[in-house]
Fold this protein.
Amino acid sequence: MIIMHVAAASLVFAFAGAVVAVATGPELIGIASSYGPGFDGHPTAMGEIFERDDLTAASRSLPLPCVIRVTNLGNGRTLVLRVNDRGPYVTGRILDVSEHAADLLDFHRQGLARVRIDILFPEDSAGVPDGAPDASQTSQAPE
């Protein structure tokens, strides 16, 4: 077992070729990717239809559903996303984001980015984030 990151009591482990994130604290740091082609229109783990233009993400370990803030550590851009799917299933990655989210975080062309994930809100039974900000909000690091 290899510890990939420890921050604020959050641990990310690699074990037997699989990445397992244990979210016991407020943040996770690791590699994010965008969903590959062919997922548009298919059901997510929550039974919703995946749309590449939605602001959604997939995680192997975060609770479904939840709302997270993702920060691209390479450029400081942040975005609020809703986690509604499981994945990624590629070793070394902790998050898959929609194509639109990857565009807004400015890593779609590169394909991968080192990100920080902060868990903001669980969702209530109606699927509405409890006190969540508008998911379309994005910010950019000062230049």
